Amino acid sequence: MSEQLIDGQTGSWEIVVGLEIHAQAITQAKLFSGAATEFGAAANTQVSLVDAAMPGMLPVINMECVHQAIRSGLGLKAKINLHSVFDRKNYFYPDLPQGYQISQFKQPIIGEGCVSIETEEGGIKEIGVERLHLEQDAGKSVHDRHPRKTYIDLNRSGVGLMEIVSKPDIRSAEEAAAYVTKVRAILRYIGTCDGNMEEGSLRADVNVSVRRPGEDLGTRCEIKNVNSIRFVRMAVEIEARRQVDLIEAGGTVDQETRLFDPDRGETRTMRSKEEAHDYRYFPDPDLLPLEFDQALVDQLAAELPELPDEKYARFVANHGLSEYDARVLIDDRETADFFERTLTDGESKRDPKIAANWIVTELFGALNAADRSIQNSPISSAQLGGLLDLIADGTISGRIAKEVFTEMFNTGSDAGMIVKAKGLEQISDTGEIEAIIAKIIADSPDQADQYRSGNEKIAGWFVGQTMKASQGRANPGMVNKILKAKLK
Ligand code: MN
Questions:
Q1: What is the DSSP letter of 333?
Q2: Ligand 1 centroid vs 92 CA: distance in angstroms?
Q3: What spacing in Å lies between the alpha carbon of 403 and ligand 1's midpoint?
Q4: Is 57 strand, coil or helix?
Q5: Taking burial as the number of CB atoms within 10 A of a residue's CB, which of 212, 239, 446, 465 is the most buried?
């Protein structure tokens, strides 16, 4: 159990969260028109007559959006409905010229599924998926261009969204964050949504309620359009606390839609919650029910890439990675691919555990410090593999390797070139190491006496002196062996 209890003045409360994620399907064209969907285009340059809701225009389903929804459904281990229906969800909004959104209400394209998340205690918890349906995005009202006017940008109007609705299985802010992270990873792996929350291509509506442990569900509030994982976590915490304080002060929670203000650290009422019947849903008479064959589903399933959970299991079982390393590496597909390329790029095969360790600690550390992602890492997987080869064959020590790594990161050079240019090859020549050690012992008779009279700890001092004298290049294993022999 990783449920998070909130301490109130009258005892503790349980948080219950359900999430609706709007994920923009990666497609060239919109859900019902051929207009482009590229982010950042000049306002109203990607608007067809359908998107602008000109009278008499007819929507035509974009099958690529359908394929993306099916792929996503498969990734969510969900039931794919071969028959689904598009409905009109009627409401007025200035940036929704149709006066309704085409969505799916009673018969969505995707039914129940599940997503597994890791709990804070390291266990696995299944979060139920209620459904995934296809619907149009609305346009955008722009309020900050003119003091007294609002502009409308319809570029986003009609873009295909996949709305993924979870069951109210989430019990903490951490679980909510883990769920969004996992759904985003799955969609990115499959290539159905880029998951870019800053650009709005993935956003979450967070439904929060509180109750006494074991009691029935409380009244929920929906916090709209939360656009980062951190904000999801904050919105759950802040809203749950608000509800507990409200109830304990003798009030009741009204079902309503709220917005989250991260600057002020609060949620505020947007509108009282409308019920489904307020929207007068009815099947869109311009569109036939959406039907396809199981053969299409089977074909898309066969083309699906390996998903995060399966990759995780394989990394642990086949590569022998620790659970921690495996989890970090599968977090996104690019990192997992980088890791596997590091094992095989170039001449030789490399030890997976050592490669994982270098990526998780050294490479991630350097990338974070430089504010870079693995996609634009200055060290390629082949170059990192080259560095690992030099350690494996004894050309350089692990300690020198860190120095070489930093140089590689800063310059983009190959490990071999840096080692050669700077003369960093490990000294594994017995005679050379013996000579260095002999001189140190001769120069330090007091310390040598101490060792001989039983103070074995001082051996470490000799190792340090030897490494220093060799500029870190002496083979540490050999130094230990030769020192022991010479000090006797
Ligand atoms: Mn929606």
A1: H
A2: 15
A3: 52
A4: coil
A5: 239
Structural contact between residues 474 and 467, judged by C-beta atoms closer than 8 angstroms: yes
**For the chain, what is the largest distance between any 2 Cα atoms, rounded to a whole number of angstroms?**
101
pLDDT tens-digit readout, 26-65: 999 999 999 999 999 999 999 999 999 999 999 999 999 9
β-sheet bridge partners, residue 431: none
pLDDT (tens digit per residue) in 326-382: 999 998 899 999 999 999 877 678 999 999 999 999 999 999 999 999 999 999 999
Q: Using CB atoms within 10 A of its CB, is residue 129 exposed (0-12), middle (13-18) or buried (19+)?
A: buried
Percentage with pLDDT > 70 across the chain: 99
Task: Yes or no: say if 343 and 314 are a contact pair by the CB < 8 Å rule.
Answer: no
Start-to-end CA distance of the chain, whole Å, equals 59
Instruction: Determine the distance separating the centroid of ligand 1 and the alpha carbon of 135, expressed in angstroms.
Output: 7
Protein residues near ligand 1, an ion, with CB under 5 A? 163
Report the DSSP beta bridge partners of residue 210.
Answer: 15
- pLDDT band per the 50, 70, 90 thresholds, residue 407: very high
Six token digits for residue 239: 């809203």
Select 430-487's CATH number: 3.30.930.10, 3.30.70.1520, 1.10.10.410, 1.25.40.10: 1.10.10.410
Inform me whether the pLDDT recorded for 276 exceeds 80: no
Q: For 155-164, how does the pLDDT look when each residue is reduced to its tens digit (9 = 90+)?
A: 999 999 999 9
Residues in the chain: 488
Alpha-carbon distance 321 to 343, whole Å?
Answer: 13
Q: Token pair for residue 149?
A: 């006017």
Q: How far does residue 296's CA lie from ligand 1's centre (Å)?
A: 26
How close is the Cα of 27 to the center of ligand 1, in Å? Answer: 18
CA of 295 to the centre of ligand 1 (A): 29
Instruction: Determine the distance separating the centroid of ligand 1 and the alpha carbon of 22, expressed in angstroms.
Output: 7
Would you kindly state where each structural domain of the chain is located, as residue ranges?
A: 5-299, 306-422, 430-487
How far apart are the CA of 164 and the centre of ligand 1, in A?
9
Dist. CA 163 → ligand 1 center (Å): 6
- Locate all alpha helices (DSSP H) within 45-90, ordered by sequence: 63-75
Question: How remote is the CA of residue 103 from the centroid of ligand 1, in Å?
Answer: 8
Task: Decide: 182 and 63 in contact? Cβ < 8 Å.
Answer: no
